[in-house]
Amino acid sequence: MAYRYWCGECRHRSPWLREYEIEQAHTDHYVAEHPRIAPEGRIESNGKNSEGASGYLLVLVVLALLLILPAVFQR
Ligand SMILES: [Zn+2]
User: Fold this and answer.
1) Which is more confident, 2 or 73?
2) For the chain, which residues make up each domain, given as ranges?
């Protein structure tokens, strides 16, 4: 599984990294961009990401059915 972090101070997000790389990348960004601020933000894993994508797809299918069904019954 890959991880990336979203900066708590700006819109920066890291590329997808391994778990052991993420802490260093986070610290490096804060040292470079936000010195004297304690690192915050959140870490995202791409496992959650794919679940979110399939949920999104389900919503699209339901919406498509809602749009198509009334058109079928009007005939
Ligand atoms: Zn930042």
Assistant:
1) 2
2) 3-73
**pLDDT tens track for 5-45:** 999 999 999 999 998 999 899 999 999 999 999 889 999 99
Instruction: Compute the distance from residue 10 Cα to the ligand 1 centre, in Å.
Output: 4
Residues with a beta carbon under 5 angstroms from ion ligand 1: 7, 9-10, 12, 33
Tokens of 13: 């997000």
Q: Are 43 and 20 in contact (CB under 8 A)?
A: no
Contacts of residue 60, defined as CB under 8 A and 6 or more positions apart, other chains included, come to: none
Measure 9 CA to ligand 1 centroid, in angstroms: 5
pTM: 0.57
Name the one residue in this structure whose structure tokens are 């058109």.
Answer: 71
